[in-house]
Design a protein that fits this description.
CATH class: Alpha Beta
CATH architecture: 3-Layer(aba) Sandwich
CATH superfamily: Response regulator
Radius of gyration: 15 Å
Strand order of the largest sheet: 2-1-3-4
Distance between the termini: 20 Å
Strand content: 5-15%
Number of helices: 4
Order of helices and strands: EHEHEHEH
């Protein structure tokens, strides 16, 4: 677990901003709280949020219904302390983005659950595994949030 103070702004980047990065951002908001600005984006413009991602996040009380996929170019603010890339392609782009800026980049290789085959429940299990892995990495990296008064 990191002993460093949490960053003030974190960006999660994947290829399409339909599954992994919005899941990571929602989990980070829960873990880090409102004092840390959290956003997500992708490399390529795409359609709507993946419905399986929405289902598995609802299972843990997080609603992604308002999420609209966006690209790095569509970000309103590029002032992030930390960029977490979730795919090799996103990592290459995040490294370019950080060049010459006071921005840390970390690579968390997260498997693509959209590649899972099988019945609906088998496919949902692949998304649940991604959700659990993202939460594990977030807690490992940032620890559990502290609560005022105990």
């Amino acid at each position: 677990m990191s002993q460093d103070p949490p960053p003030s702004a974190v960006l999660f980047v994947c290829n399409l901003n339909r599954v992994r990065s919005p899941m990571a951002a929602a989990l980070a908001r829960r873990i880090l709280g409102p004092q840390v600005f959290t956003d997500s984006c992708g490399l390529v413009a795409t359609g709507e949020l993946d419905p399986f991602a929405q289902v598995v996040m609802q299972e843990v009380g997080l609603d992604l219904a308002e999420h609209r996929p966006k690209t790095i170019q569509e970000l309103k603010d590029g002032s992030f302390d930390l960029v977490v890339s979730l795919t090799p392609e996103a990592h290459a782009r995040a490294s370019e983005l950080a060049r010459g800026r006071a921005m840390a980049v970390e690579y968390w290789p997260i498997p693509d659950p959209t590649l899972a085959e099988g019945a609906r429940e088998q496919r949902l299990d692949a998304y649940r595994q991604v959700r659990r892995e993202l939460e594990r990495r977030l807690r490992e990296r940032f620890g559990r949030p502290s609560t005022f008064g105990g």
